C-alpha cells in the first residue's frame, strides 16, 4: 500500500493543478494531508483519509471535524512531515509519495530531504520506495534498504545524484553521460547536473544514502511521470 502525503503548497492554482496531474491516485492509496495540505486535497476534489499538523497553515479549521487527524504542538523538535510519515508507517504502508513538501523556505526544504533520506534507511519501518514531488522537481531516496532506482526519461534529461548524511559507497550510475561503477559519493557537488544518454537509466548503491533529483523546469528536463 502507498501513502500519498500532501503538503500546504503555496502557488497559483494552475501551478498546483499541474503538480496534481503529475501523479495518479491509486484506489488503495492512503491519503494524508500535512497541515494546510488537508485543505489542498479538498480543493482538488479528493477526500483525504487522515491529517497531521499543528494547523498553522490550515485556513479552514472546520475540516478537522470530519477527518481523523493528529494535532501537533507548535513547539516541537521535528517537522510536520516527519510525524506524517510516522503516521503512514503506522497505517502499514510500504511506499511513500510526498507531494508539495519541498521548495519554499530553504530550511524546510533541506529538513524534508534529510528526513526522507532518514526514513529510507528503515530505522522507523520498512519502505520499498520513497519519492517526493515538488514544484521545482522530483526526488528519489536510496539506502541499503532501497538499494536501486530505475528511471525512464527522454534523452539528455537533467538528473543530479548526491550523497546524503555520511554519503554512499558502491555507487553505480548507468545510462548517464557521467557513469560510475562501485564509486563513492560524499557530501559534495559530485553528481551535479548529469544527463541521461538513453531512455532507461539506473542508480544503485551498496552502502549509505543517496538522493536523486530531477529538476522540473528547463530545457531537457521533461520527465515521464507514469511510474510515480
Quick overview of this protein structure:
By secondary structure, the chain is an alpha/beta fold.
Return residue spans where pLDDT drops below 50 for at least 5 consecutive residues: 218-228
The averaged pLDDT comes out at: 92
Shape descriptor reads globular
Computed over alpha carbons, the radius of gyration is 17 Å
Tell me the total number of β-strands.
13
Number of helices, counting only DSSP H or I runs of 4 residues or more: 4
Distance between the termini: 14 Å
User: Percent of residues in helical segments?
Assistant: 10-25%
Residues in β-strands, percent: 25-35%
**Secondary structure category:** alpha/beta
| Helix and strand run | EHEHEEHEHEEEEEEEE
**Largest sheet, if any?**
13 strands, mixed
Tell me the CATH architecture of the largest domain: 3-Layer(aba) Sandwich
Describe what this molecule looks like in 3D.
- The protein is an alpha/beta fold.
- The chain folds into 2 domains: 1-135, Rossmann fold; 141-228, 3-Layer(aba) Sandwich (Rossmann fold), CATH 3.40.50.
- Helices cover 18% and strands 34% of the residues.
- It has 4 helices and 13 strands.
- It has helices at 13-20, 37-43, 80-90, 106-119; strands at 2-6, 30-34, 50-53, 69-71, 95-99, 129-133, 137-142, 148-152, 158-174, 180-185, 194-195, 200-204, 207-215.
- Strands 1, 2, 3, 4, 5, 6, 7, 8, 9, 10, 11, 12 and 13 form a 13-stranded mixed β-sheet that branches.
- The chain is globular, with a radius of gyration of 17 Å.
- The model is unreliable at 218-228 (pLDDT under 50).
Amino acid at each position: 500500500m502507498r501513502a500519498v502525503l500532501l503538503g500546504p503548497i503555496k502557488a497559483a492554482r494552475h501551478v498546483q493543478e499541474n503538480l496534481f496531474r503529475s501523479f495518479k491516485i491509486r484506489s488503495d492509496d492512503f491519503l494524508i494531508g500535512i497541515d494546510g495540505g488537508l485543505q489542498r486535497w479538498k480543493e482538488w476534489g479528493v477526500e483525504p483519509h487522515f491529517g497531521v499538523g499543528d494547523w498553522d497553515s490550515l485556513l479552514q479549521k472546520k475540516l478537522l471535524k470530519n477527518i481523523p487527524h493528529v494535532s501537533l504542538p507548535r513547539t516541537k523538535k521535528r517537522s510536520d512531515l516527519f510525524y506524517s510519515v510516522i503516521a503512514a508507517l503506522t497505517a502499514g504502508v510500504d511506499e511513500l509519495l510526498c507531494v508539495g513538501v519541498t521548495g519554499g523556505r530553504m530550511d524546510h526544504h533541506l529538513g524534508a530531504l534529510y528526513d526522507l533520506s532518514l526514513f529510507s534507511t528503515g530505522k522507523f519501518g520498512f519502505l520499498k520506495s520513497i519519492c517526493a514531488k515538488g514544484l521545482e522537481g522530483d526526488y528519489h531516496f536510496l539506502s541499503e534498504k532501497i538499494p536501486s532506482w530505475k528511471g525512464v526519461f527522454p534523452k539528455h534529461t537533467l538528473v543530479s545524484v548526491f550523497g546524503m548524511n555520511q554519503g554512499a559507497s558502491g555507487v553505480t550510475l548507468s545510462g548517464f553521460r557521467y557513469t560510475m561503477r562501485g564509486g563513492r559519493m560524499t557530501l559534495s557537488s559530485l553528481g551535479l547536473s548529469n544527463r541521461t544518454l538513453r531512455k532507461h537509466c539506473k542508480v544503485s548503491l551498496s552502502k549509505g544514502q543517496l538522493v536523486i533529483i530531477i529538476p522540473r523546469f528547463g530545457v531537457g528536463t521533461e520527465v515521464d511521470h507514469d511510474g510515480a
